[in-house]
Amino acid sequence: METEEQVAKGLTNASVVSKYREAANIVNRALQALVPQCQAGADISTLCSNGDQLIEQGLATVFTSAPIEKGIAIPTCISVNNVCAHYSPLPEESSTLQPGDLIKIELGAHIDGYIANAATSLVVGASAETPITGNKADVVLAAYNAIQAALRLIKPGSSNLEVTEVFNKIAADYQCNVLEGVLSHEIKQHVIDGNHVIIGKESFDQHVEEFKFGANEAYIIDIFISTGEGKPKEAETRTTVFQRALDMTYNLKLKSSRNFLTEVNRRFPTLLFSLRSFADQRNARVGVSECLNHNMLYSFPVITEKPGDLVAQFKVTVLILETGTIVITPLIFNPELCQTEKTVTDEAVKALLATQMATVAVAKPKKAKKNKKKKKAAAQEGESKEEENKAEETKAE
Predict the structure, then answer these.
(1) What is the DSSP letter of 188?
(2) Which residues contact residue 200 at a Cβ distance below 8 angstroms, ignoring those fewer than 6 apart?
């Protein structure tokens, strides 16, 4: 846990930036490993468990010299076609991927409460030989271009409402709609839903306060675009994703519920988790029920558009540093797989998309060296590692 002084410094503290970056590297590698597994016939619950395992395996290899809280920030969710988000099914309630399914993969990790989340969309079986066409191509490209434009706006002096405006201009060009009710948040240590908010689409009863982005801020940018009306509903599917409500306490009556809450407090004290993560499913289900009855958990139900509609999603984690903006979870998607006659028409938005995305390398904290040989070896190792990271990010984008 950071000291109060370190937290106050935020992204001016090299240790904080390092934790964000390391969590992001783990998320990127997990997502890159999971994407090829999403083939026709693959079981969704198994894929979600694989994603969680990849995150946990990655976390086990970093910051091992001292006790530090590490874990999943959002359990792996794989939502198909008109299902928008939070589909992380139990094994007995799962389904399999089919050729042509449009899927959204979302996952995240944290180190000492510093969060990196990412999401991508893909079509099962798509390739250069079998490209994405029709309304699938339209909705995926709309979401992809929307988040690319947003990333170029997220810098000191720009406003959240500018991002909302460009989201909706691009969606309209592809004859799609931004999903209502979706918010992108500023993030801080252990906080995934900070006060600075970007709304995907304003409506009659959904508005947010305008603000200007500033240096030393971190955000998770989330965009959902639909071929339908963009008005999702809560599905009848079982909710499996939850978060501990830290401001609520209650002496649970059932022993199984108390055991469940003890495990939640130990493994997932502040961020999201899935029922899949508990070995004793009976205790977990009883515990969830009693905790919900006493407002000790927040639930994240599965949400869907109408049957036949298609929804695409992209999510990235962004740090606004004093030296520039960096996307620490770069997009993992190849837009050349999509074929459509629709395109962005607004000249200002086209100019924005044509702008080079400015990113910066984050220097690691310097350590004292005992002698010149060790200093030289460490420098060479650092240069090699930096080149690896740059190559990996370039490949991902």
Answers:
(1) B
(2) 164, 167, 178, 179, 180, 181, 182, 183, 184, 222, 223, 224
Q: 232 and 216, same structural domain? A: yes
- For the entire predicted model, the pTM comes to 0.86
pLDDT band of 247, cuts 50, 70, 90:
confident
Kindly state whether residues 261 and 151 are assigned to the same domain.
no
Rounded to whole angstroms, the Cα distance separating 223 from 212 reads 19
Number of structural domains found in the chain = 3
Residue 28 corresponds to which amino acid? N
Q: Indicate the DSSP class of residue 16.
A: H
H helices of the chain, in order, are: 4-9, 14-34, 44-59, 134-153, 160-173, 255-267, 281-293, 347-354, 372-396
Residue span of the structural domain in which 86 resides: 4-238+301-365
Neighbouring residues of 66: CB distance < 8 A, sequence distance ≥ 6: none
Task: Check whether 365 has a pLDDT greater than 60.
Answer: no
DSSP state letter for 85: E
Question: What's the confidence (pLDDT) of residue 250?
Answer: 83
